[in-house]
Amino acid sequence: MTATIPSPDDVLELLDEDASAAVPGMADAWTVLVVDDDAEVHQATEFALRDAIVCGRRIALLHATSAAEARARIAGDDDIAVILLDVVMESPDAGLALVHTIRETLGRSEVRIVLRTGQAGYAPEMKVIREYDINDYRTKAELTHTRLLTTLTAAIRAYEQIRRLSVGMRGMREIALSGVQGEIPRSVAEFASVALGRIESLVGRPIQAAFCGPTGDGGTLEDRLGILAGLGSYSCEEGALLSELRDAAWVESIRRARAQQASVFGDRTMCLFLGSRYGKEACVLVDLDRPADEMLRHLVGVLATHLRVAFENVLLLERLNFFAYFDQLTRLPNRTCFLDRLDAALARLDGGGWVLGIIDIVRFSELNNALGHRSGDALLVDVTRRLGHRLGPEAFLSRLAGDAFGVCWRTGHEEASAVLDVFATPFGVRGHAVPMRARAGFVDVVPVAGGAVELLKRANLALAQAKQQGDQHCSFYASEMEERTQSRVQLLNELRSALHLGQGLELFYQPQVRLGDKMAVGCEALIRWFKPDGEMVSPDVFIPLAEYTGLIVEIGDWVLAEACRQLVRWDAEGLPPIRVGINISAAQFREPDFVSKVLAQIHETGIDPSRLELEITESVAVDDPESVARQLKELKALGFSVAVDDFGCGFSSLGSLNRLPFDRVKIDRAFVRELTPSTAEGCIARMIVKLAESLGLKVTAEGVETESQAELLESMGCEEMQGFLYGCPMPAPTFQGWMKSRFGTLFAER
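Predicted structure:
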């Protein structure tokens, strides 16, 4: 290798520069290992370096006379900076073999190796440097006193830089790996301690440091900054706010970093800015015992960038954790958090007297629809405030769902019921005084299998009972509620099984008779359910259950299909065509594909749509008048007739009837039952008949049981009757026989 050799004067100038940087009395020294089997070489090297100062430190020599001895020394000392290594010792390539051992076996990549040989050309220079990790190559004759110092200075400077970089990279690697392999800190406070530990590890010696981060939610960002963790003298400042710090220089350094939104480096201080997000920010103040060099500042700056990313991740994790366990609007614990806290508290609730409750706001959705969701949100916040004030700090308060609140507190039954008094005063919402009502279900907190989940379920059962009693009511759990619920669940499962298996469900048909000639003009299809043991379950029992669970849609689809199939069978028997009335539930009518499903049944069976009369209740008619009117018009255009069932029980305005395309009005049996000669003149039935007549609608009276009722209705102008006077609901074969036995072959024309 060709090298440019400096002049003696240049070398002397370099050495003088190094010497001037020496620290008198400094204990640290550069460790240099001399490996050579020639004792004179050891003596000459020691003599040449006796008083040498290189890069501010003295030289401490170690000696080895063989490769084996050198290996042992290197394995036991991590601070060797340079190795002056002979090539030929116990074997011609002992030195080269030792190089391989140092680099590959011992893994010592930082130590600088200067190869010295007394046999120039034995190992060609470029080949040696290329094939072995050697940092310099000299002949022994070449290494005069001056050139030895020059070579050693260059090697030590390289070692120092590599060592610093290696230490720094190890610190950075530890931080990176901690984010991948270790558990991510779940809070800023936990992250604060980890961050300080990483910074100290990178610096490589004990430091004085403080982590400044958010301590609360009130005031400005600066008002919320405080010492979350500290090292050294800062450890006694933990918990103090930034405004309370004694050292004004500390405060000023932190404020500069915050103002610049960047890390600030002084001679012996560093203030690392870790970013600001979600209304929170953090920085780390570090005091050093001596000035930081450029390399350390650079590495700390890189570390600060890494910590900034980590800090943002911790804030994000905290935010996600908040969303997982707390309600963003009211800041109350959500259902999950409420149950977790209640389970944790069950073991330490001292004695009885604790009550768990669910408070449900009545018709909250109506407020949202009328005044908008922002008004609804404002109401919920106000409800939270009132409940918190009423219940006190000891209570567990939670937002379980949209308009349902959970609460657990020590109270008696009367006091628990009185919690609904918070709704006695109207709420101020966007300039409106809005009266609101609520219902509540309560349960005594006692040890039960299933813990908080079971208690909440019991409170729900009590709430269901309160809903049946009306607004502003509350109920306490009783075991009978659960028994009724279990019975309902079992019944529902049996109903679902009967529907899916096609067993037990049957359509009965009740005749509809024209008064003028007493001819059968139609019938109403009514579903019946028989259990395997023959027991009939009343429609008054299973229909509400099906409506509550949504199963009524499937049941309604089955009724429509079965009625169409029955018409096909009757046509095959040669019976004259009659119409069949089919009840359509509100849930069916709200299905977006309702009309298409009805039409599909017509296409499948080939039934004339005019043979079917779809009966809907008043509540369906007024639920969404525009949508209902649109669908009814579509059905009528297809040929179906439409009747409004149980008329007179629910319309808020009889005028609504004029806006909907009905063909028929069915008078509810309740108004037929009250008919007597003395009440007939001003009765509701007469008004319904007159209204229908004025609108061009046909009228059918339900629940006709006596000749007197029939005569009165006929005198009012009612055209058709349905009731026990003419026939009770009966199976299809019985209905067919009834028609033949009563009317022979005479059937009314439609």
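Summary: The two ends are 118 Å apart (CA to CA).
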